[in-house]
Amino acid sequence: MTVFDLNPEYLIRDEAALRGLFPPTHELAKKKCLTTLDRHARDFIERSPFVCLGTQNADGKADVSPRGDPPGFVKVLDDQTLVLPDRPGNNRLDSLVNIVTNPSVGLLFIIPGFDDTLRVNGQATLVVDPDLLKAMSVKGRSPTVAIHVRVTSVFMHCAKAFRRSHLWDPKRFQDRSDMPSLMKIITDQAAETPASDEELTALDEKLEESYRKTLY
Predict the structure, then answer these.
(1) CB 126 within 8 A of CB 148
(2) N or C: which end of the chain has fewer CB atoms below 10 A?
(3) pTM more than 0.70
(4) CA distance linking residue 21 with residue 24, whole number of Å
(5) What is the Cα–Cα distance from 134 to 141, expressed in whole angstroms?
């Protein structure tokens, strides 16, 4: 595949050049950024069943991980502290390893049907406090680890991205069967030889069984 080369003439190399392309920031946009979780932020977090967790490793390599649970799964402990359970996954531990080496995290809270979102940035620590973990149990199963975040900034994000994408409009929903199954994609990407139809059916069934048994 041909590699696309950027023309250096059109690269932005500093903040001054970047800001020169845009009008000044509205004063309200500057003032909306808080350092604590006010009542509106708390309410938003309590309603949210889904958050994207952004992390970086020690070298600055970035990663974003989806996190989901019943609304309120992210617990607000005080005006500057929240905690997320780490539920069972594939044990790559990308986000957790990143946090160990670089505590800076970004969170994007999403509520189904809401076009606006909540952004929270802070410093994260991994904790195994048994009382804290037990408080986040689901179906009698506690998370192995929790992500403790000391909030440094919090602000609401406008609805433009969700309006442009029509994310919640059922008329814009796409048929999942238009693409191969997750296991077909993964085996195409990772297996040395293509999987047979019978093997793919077995893998798809095994994945669904895993969803039923190991969500928590």
Answers:
(1) yes
(2) N
(3) yes
(4) 10
(5) 8
Model confidence pLDDT, tens digit, residues 75-128 = 999 999 999 999 999 999 999 999 999 999 999 999 999 999 999 999 999 999
Rounded Cα distance, 216 and 214, in Å: 5
Token pair recorded at residue 30:
């500057």
Note the pLDDT tens digit of each residue in 27-62: 998 889 999 999 999 999 999 999 999 999 999 999
Residue 97 zone, left/alpha/beta (φ > 0; ψ -120 to 50; rest): alpha
Domains of the chain in start order, with CATH, are 31-165 (2.30.110.10), 174-214 (no CATH)
In 3D, which of 155, 38, 54, 142 has the Cα closest to residue 102? Answer: 54
SS3 101: helix
Q: For residues 88 and 141, what is the distance between their CA atoms, to the nearest angstrom?
A: 10
